[in-house]
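dude i think i finally got it to work??
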Amino acid sequence: MDILEDNIDRGKLIETAMENLKYSYAPYSGFNVSAAVLMNSGKIYTGVNVENASYPAGICAERNAIFHAVACGEREILAIAIVGGPDHTIIDYCSPCGICRQVMREFCEPEKMRVIFARSKTDYKEMTLDELLPKSFGPKALKNEGKIRKV
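look at this
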């Protein structure tokens, strides 16, 4: 088992992302990505990259997973596992783009949130979001001191 002191089962999170990779839709780039995000409720949500002929209309796997969690009422990310590669084949570690890092920042404590890049269930690298996105801009940087208005 890959549970460390923070009670995150890395093996399960990675395995979930790997199992979901087959659903990625990347007919233009041929680079498939899957993500599994663990929320503070203990639930895992998945997402894949979905490309579109109108390129900006697509979405990354990480944001897809996070938005899925948010749409289900979740608000705090503990960890995310990311896998990907050409033609549904994982050959190297897959790191999130800048936009995905910023979206992660909205829903976590960056010094605690774990970002896991995996090639297999046992071959992975891990960083905190704070290490991936230092000196980040987040909710507390706004004039309302991070208090989210209820609409």
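The domain at 10-141 is CATH 3.40.140.10 (Cytidine Deaminase; domain 2).
im so relieved honestly
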